[in-house]
UniProtKB/TrEMBL annotation:
<dbReference type="InterPro" id="IPR016181">
    <property type="entry name" value="Acyl_CoA_acyltransferase"/>
</dbReference>
<dbReference type="GO" id="GO:0016747">
    <property type="term" value="F:acyltransferase activity, transferring groups other than amino-acyl groups"/>
</dbReference>
<dbReference type="Pfam" id="PF00583">
    <property type="entry name" value="Acetyltransf_1"/>
</dbReference>
<dbReference type="InterPro" id="IPR000182">
    <property type="entry name" value="GNAT_dom"/>
</dbReference>
<protein>
    <recommendedName>
        <fullName>N-acetyltransferase domain-containing protein</fullName>
    </recommendedName>
</protein>
<feature type="domain" description="N-acetyltransferase">
    <location>
        <begin position="13"/>
        <end position="163"/>
    </location>
</feature>
<dbReference type="Pfam" id="PF13508">
    <property type="entry name" value="Acetyltransf_7"/>
</dbReference>
<dbReference type="InterPro" id="IPR050832">
    <property type="entry name" value="Bact_Acetyltransf"/>
</dbReference>
<feature type="domain" description="N-acetyltransferase">
    <location>
        <begin position="166"/>
        <end position="314"/>
    </location>
</feature>
<keyword id="KW-0808">Transferase</keyword>
<keyword id="KW-0012">Acyltransferase</keyword>
Length: 314
């Protein structure tokens, strides 16, 4: 019997295909880490931040089934981030390499008028050896490892009591936006991967699908913000997007207090799972903090990097 190789072609998705894309990525997640790590709000938030007609790609089989997905997003003045996903049943057909080529071509177009070298990041499961070999063969080098940590809450967590000078308050959308943005910049500016953004752009990205101000918290020392936490509810539980404490306020238990406040809020909403990502080489030893409150590593994401620079025609 003669076997034919499925034909695929690459184009851009429609907004109505967000659920189909989520389902595809979920299949890839299940194969890589044993469970989905994607929500519909993740897809929609990204598509609001980019132009899906130029920055998002899908591969379709000859019967129009989605068999691949990729995107590239400019996340800073000198940085772009990307991911490539291939349906588990359609690997080894060149879909991944074709999507990666589309991502790189688009990255060059985005950066052609920008000064200096631009870094293109690609994130993939650390255990996906084929994907790692693919990006390495395309000139990417390993840059960073992130751990996906989680906890299953089996009881209402006890809150951590801070010194009396500090108070934890929920985020007030009409009053705290600028303070939160400044606190984020101050706490993350020395972190690997930090990319400076305009305040309006950053806030728009963070207040997209699934935004719930009652899951954002600021720690105050009088009228000065000392730290913050930003979370959102997803299909698989509470996801902690960002947690930061200003340098001069560290060693006071602020990070622990914020985490336990978020855990407490999740449990009261009947959400038992809390998830976050952490840099394995965190300068602040954030991994130790997360372990101290009961979180454990579940999977790892590798970040690969390639310098791209537009070559002007002669």
């Amino acid at each position: 019997m003669t076997m034919t190789t499925p034909i695929f072609h690459i184009d851009h998705p429609s907004t109505e295909e967000a659920q189909d894309v989520m389902d595809l990525v979920a299949l890839c997640d299940i194969e890589a880490i044993g469970e989905p790590d994607i929500s519909l709000s993740d897809v929609l938030d990204l598509w609001q931040a980019v132009d899906i007609e130029t920055d998002v790609f899908v591969a379709r089989s000859d019967d129009t089934k989605l068999v691949g997905y990729a995107f590239v997003e400019q996340t800073g003045a000198n940085r772009l981030d990307s991911c490539v996903f291939v349906h588990p049943e359609f690997k080894g057909l060149g879909i991944g390499s074709s999507l990666l080529a589309q991502v790189e071509q688009r990255a060059l177009q985005i950066t052609k008028d920008l000064p200096g070298p631009q870094r293109l990041m690609n994130q993939l499961p650390f255990t996906n050896l084929a994907a790692r070999e693919l990006v390495e063969s395309a000139g990417y080098t390993f840059s960073r490892l992130y751990e996906r940590m989680k906890i299953e809450l089996d009881a209402l967590p006890e809150l951590f009591e801070l010194p009396s000078r500090f108070t934890i308050q929920p985020f007030r959308p009409g009053m705290d936006a600028h303070t939160l943005f400044e606190t984020y910049n101050e706490t993350f500016k020395d972190s690997w991967g930090y990319a400076e953004k305009e305040e309006a752009t950053w806030l728009a990205q963070k207040t997209g699908e699934g935004f719930d101000p009652s899951l954002w918290f600021l720690v105050w020392d009088g009228t000065t913000a000392a730290g913050f936490l930003m979370g959102r509810l997803e299909e698989d539980g509470l996801f902690i997007d960002l947690l930061g404490v200003k340098r001069e306020y560290r060693k006071h238990g602020i990070g622990k207090a914020l985490l336990l406040r978020a855990f407490h809020e999740a449990y009261q909403r009947n959400e038992r799972t809390v998830i976050l990502y952490v840099d394995s080489d965190s300068l602040t030893n954030a991994n130790r903090l997360y372990r101290s409150v009961g979180m454990t590593p579940h999977s790892q994401t590798a970040v690969y990097e390639k310098v791209v620079k537009y070559a002007s025609p002669n």
